[in-house]
Amino acid sequence: MKRRRILVADDEIYILHILEFSLNLEGYEVISATSGEEALAKAAKERPDLVVLDVLMPQMDGHEVCRRLKTDERTRDIPVIFLSARDSQTDQDLGLRLGAEAYITKPFSPQRLIDTIQNLLDGTQTGKRAVGM
């Protein structure tokens, strides 16, 4: 069976390492990006099965990345999960309105993120939702 690929975009290197380690243990192939521009380029080239996206990144924020992913016919069907320290209800609502399937706030539980990823990839999560820690 082909390993599912997840693009993780976050400018905090230690968050990338935690996510790479956790997701690799679960059998996923991880593609990393440290900026919004890099995330868009890798999404178009690599066609991941899912994107985990930070909001606050240099050059282009996660909101703009999500908007562009969801308006590009090549990437619009890729599920997006925001993983962000921006935890207000307004931020969460904006992320979901932009097309993200889930919004998880930092600090976060790696297991909660993995459960959300598995539910989205297996089609067992219906509807958009904000997920706490």
Globally, the shape reads globular
Q: Structural class, from secondary structure content?
A: alpha/beta
Number of domain units: 1
Summed over residues and divided by their number, the pLDDT gives a mean of 92
In CATH terms, what is the architecture? 3-Layer(aba) Sandwich
Low-confidence stretches: none
Description:
- Strand 5, helix 5 (110-122) and strand 6 form a beta-alpha-beta unit.
- Helix 2 packs parallel to helix 3 (62-71).
- This protein is of the alpha/beta class and 133 residues long.
- The mean pLDDT is 92.
- The longest helix is centred in the first third of the chain and has 13 residues, at 13-25.
- The protein is globular.
- The protein has helices spanning 13-25, 36-46, 62-71, 89-97, 110-122; strands at residues 5-9, 29-33, 50-53, 80-84, 102-105, 129-131.
- Helix content is 42%, strand content 20%.
- It has a single domain (5-131), classed as 3-Layer(aba) Sandwich (Rossmann fold).
- The termini are far apart.
- Strands 2-1-3-4-5-6 form a six-stranded parallel β-sheet, with helices on both faces.
